[in-house]
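<derive_structure_tokens>
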Amino acid sequence: MNDPFIVMYDRYFDDIYRFVWYKTGNKWDTDDLVADIFRKALQSFDTVRLKEEQQKRWLVAIARNTVIDYYRKRKEVVYGHDPEVFGYVQTAELLDSIDLRQDCLKLSLQSLSVEEQEIINLKYMTGLKYAEIGEIVGKAEAWLKMKVHRMKQKLAKFITECMEVQQ
């Protein structure tokens, strides 16, 4: 017999881990937070009665709120800064720890605004669909599609210019 929670855990663990790791920039905090996220999910799993297609969005919402709480408790967020996106200031450290062969890619990702980094994380790190991202961040699906299209153009231009300078 397959436990539905274990099936969900196995299916989405990597996505949730990548989402949190991108927000925190270090393995130890990520390990702790992901464990806490799945503990919270287990505690309410039987009461929420989710359809399979809703599970990932639900876990990402729990992950997002858990990361926000984490930064609020650490009191590292300066007054006036949004703790929801604070973790992205540590993205540079995370990218430095990854052996990226293209410095231009690293620089281009760091050039994105905090909002753009959040969208990239939700779209490409967790693999959410535009409609799901829209529900999480409170933006229309059409707006998100246009934003991602423009971000891709911006990144392509940045990378091209960077590569030309390095030659």
About this structure: Confidence is low (pLDDT under 50) at residues 77-81, 97-101. The chain has one domain: 4-166. Residues 4-166 form one domain. The CA atoms of residues 12 and 86 lie 24 Å apart.
